[in-house]
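**User:**
My hope is that you can spare some time for a protein that puzzles me. This is the protein in question:
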Amino acid sequence: MTVTTGSASDVGVRVNRAGDRDPRDIEIARIDEMISRSDIVKLSDGDLAWLRPGDRHGDAIRWLMSRGPAILVVTHGDTTATGYTRSGSVHVRGQRVAGTDTAEWEDAFMTGLLHALNARNLPARKSDRKNLRSIGLDDLRGILHDANVSAARAVTPVAV
């Protein structure tokens, strides 16, 4: 699933067969365009590896940040997330919820991320670009923590 809201994007690699072009080239062009128009980008470590095969992690992150986002978040299958800005990075551990799949957690995390940004008056709108670009690492750590808590709550089964 790929979600674009305002200037926030959740990259989800989907390869479709189309025309004569290599599907990988089509998908990379789509993702590159999406990232270059977004202030906030979230993708999984699997998406990152697919998008930049052969790159060292730091090189892939630098390439993505050069495309324009103010905040880049890479989620990891174990419910941890790493957030990047131009001033550095933070890593936040999440809570593992038994019986949930990664895609479900990823979707819930993105929702929590946008909610946490909005709660701090940092919505993903072009008019707020300056605020997003000046976000501190402590604030980003808190936002990622809140997104993780939100995701854990969203995917926790409710006893009936």
